[in-house]
Specification:
Strand content: 5-15%
Distance between the termini: 26 Å
Order of helices and strands: EHEHHHEEHHE
Radius of gyration: 17 Å
Strand order of the largest sheet: 1-2-5-3-4
Helix content: 25-40%
């Protein structure tokens, strides 16, 4: 069944079975547990659609990145200097870009509904396996902590925007770019592409000791 509405974010208790490619593995399976009555801290996820739209608004200075949301980066991972330079360029552009005011208002309102002064932002990826992907690929099965750091931020506009951009930028860190290329995963970011990155926001006090520890 096609998805009728593409929202900026989704609450865990409202995620539907056909939302997997919009919310990523971690958020999707947490929502399944929550909706079955398991103890999961309430939260929301900024969708892969929002991430894709954000990338498309960036005025990329390099032709290599101009069609980034829809094309793959072909990198020489044996050239660490080039890899680091490309990663820095992409991450800088993400941090310098402006988020639309409507998005900021939506995310800030959702954060305030959680009634927590501090939030933890976690990546929620959806990765399409390829013939070259290892069977034990930890990111493909949702354990994205193998590549990404937890972002802890205050529940205010400045910190939330900074945390969200930092989380998205980590998808293009040198370590991440090396991983995607070595694993044979084309770095496209649409819902039908190989990698989609959503941002899961929960109360920072949640340490993963609930039933969702392995996600």
């Amino acid at each position: 069944m096609p998805i009728k509405t593409l929202a900026i974010l989704y609450w865990l208790n409202q995620i539907e079975p056909n939302h997997l490619f919009l919310v990523g593995n971690k958020a999707f399976y947490l929502s399944r547990l929550l909706q079955k009555g398991y103890p999961v801290v309430p939260g929301f996820v900024v969708s892969t659609y929002t991430f894709r739209e954000f990338l498309e608004t960036i005025a990329w200075s390099e032709p290599l990145f101009s069609d980034l949301p829809n094309s793959s980066l072909h990198l020489d991972i044996e050239n660490p200097h080039q890899l680091k330079k490309i990663a820095q360029q992409i991450r800088r552009a993400i941090h310098d870009a402006e988020l639309p005011s409507e998005w900021i208002s939506t995310v800030l309102e959702a954060a305030q509904q959680l009634q927590s002064p501090v939030l933890a932002l976690r990546p929620s990826l959806i990765v399409q396996k390829t013939a070259r992907s290892p069977q034990s690929n930890p990111v493909a099965v949702g354990r994205s902590s193998a590549l990404f750091n937890l972002q802890v931020c205050q529940s205010n506009e400045t910190d939330l925007v900074r945390g969200l951009k930092t989380l998205w930028a980590e998808l293009f860190g040198a370590k991440s770019l090396f991983y995607w290329q070595r694993s044979g995963v084309p770095l496209t970011t649409g819902s039908v592409g190989s990698v989609g990155a959503a941002a899961l926001a929960c109360d920072r006090l949640w340490d993963g000791t609930h039933s969702a520890r392995s996600l």
